[in-house]
Amino acid sequence: MKMTFRWYGEGNDKIDLPYIKQIPGVEGIVWSLHDMPAGSLWSQGRIDTEKEKIEKAGFHIEVVESVNVHEDIKLGLASRDQYIDNYIETLKRLSKAGVKVVCYNFMPVFDWTRTELYKELEDGSNALFFEQSKINDIEPIELIEKLSKNVDVTMPGWEPERLSKLKETFKLYENFSAEQLWKNLQYFLERIIPTCEEYDIKMGIHPDDPAFPIFGLPRIIINKENILRFLNLVDSPYNGLSLCCGSLGSSNNDIPDIIESVHHRIHFMHIRNVKRFENGDFIESSHRACDGSVDTVKVIKTLHKHNYKGYVRPDHGRHIWGEEKWARPGYGLYDRALGIMYILGVWDSLEPAKAD
Ligand code: DNO
Is-catalytic flag, 306? Predict the structure, then answer.
């Protein structure tokens, strides 16, 4: 496996690349042009500047997370083709720059959703938290306003252009079924995958987070059955997965079992842990298997068993040692660095012993 670390870019992430360089084993930066609205065409100049910056710091740029999918594509509106054309051209440009894997999601309206960003844990750290009862009686915009009060960065899925149209977007999703979403996903894949094959760029869909419907919106990349259905929509190795243990772990999924079935189509792994409670709430925990509901050791063992050669990154975790004062919610430096050491520790223990 190839270890990577997600970085939000200069001026948009308080963690500096030289600090990331000090984490053992990190070879690549997972990046994006975070200011590009979904559906826009990325300029080759911007891509190349980012590439230069990251490579100069000693990392590869082979994984992009995310190239966001325009809402009209998810909704299947007539205007979708122009956005798909832009998507295809962006993929070609990324491939020319050396990108190998693109992570994206197909969640209506929102990206990942939580009800609290800094829930205190017993050990004095804090973490992202999802409280089922809170989601049931709050309007989406109210939730975002409440959460963004103490956050001075734009969070994925909460981009101003998305939020300004939230009401209209929700209207478009009225009476919109999961089957329609499947159909629109298939249309999108049938259009982009031939380019991916030609330009050798692998697509990895990210599961829905949380992995169940919220605010009455359908969510489809949520369990093994649906993941298998997804892979058959276009049966090409280029149509693959960014398998996120935390997202799938937010509901009762057997992730090692999913990996057993689909390891050959996983291009990117997000290895992290969440602790699920009986009432449907969940909280991000340390990466350690015994701290959460995901058996991260078994996840790593299963990948190792199948000689997984794809990309991996740690994810979320807690905010520790006071870093919530400056780090992006869910994207601190310390717990993700500890997560990497845990993942590599388990992985290395499975490798042949060092010769004396
Ligand atoms: C959450 C992330 C997601 C992910 C997107 C992929 O922390 O894993 O925001 O980047 O869903 O498009």
Answer: no
Is the CA virtual torsion 131, 137, 140, 143 positive or negative?
negative
Ligand 1 contact, 112 CB (< 6 A): yes
Structure tokens at 88: 């295809």
Written as one letter, the residue type at 184 is N
Containing domain of residue 231, as a range? Answer: 2-355
Structure tokens at 22: 């000090």
| φ, ψ for residue 300, nearest 5 deg | -70, -40
Is residue 111 in contact with ligand 1, taking CB distance under 6 Å? Answer: yes
User: Does 32 sit in the ligand 1 pocket, CB within 6 Å?
Assistant: no
d(CA 346, CA 356): 21
Report the number of distinct structural domains present in the chain.
1
Enter the tokens of residue 283.
Answer: 């909280």
For residue 242, how far is its CA from the centre of ligand 1 (angstroms)? Answer: 9
- 245 has catalytic annotation: no
The answer to whether the CB of 266 falls within 8 A of the CB of 259 is: yes
Q: What is the CATH number of the domain that holds 348?
A: 3.20.20.150
pLDDT in tens, the chain (356 residues): 999 999 999 999 999 999 999 999 999 999 999 999 999 999 999 999 999 999 999 999 999 999 999 999 999 999 999 999 999 999 999 999 999 999 999 999 989 999 999 999 999 999 999 999 998 888 888 888 888 887 877 777 778 877 888 889 999 999 999 999 999 999 999 999 999 999 999 999 999 999 999 999 999 999 999 999 999 999 999 999 999 999 999 999 999 999 999 999 999 999 999 999 999 999 999 999 999 999 999 999 999 999 999 999 999 989 999 999 999 999 999 999 999 999 999 999 999 988 76
CA angle 74, 80, 85 (to 5 degrees): 120
Task: Give every CB contact of residue 111 below 8 A, 6+ residues apart in sequence.
Answer: 105, 155, 156, 157, 158, 209
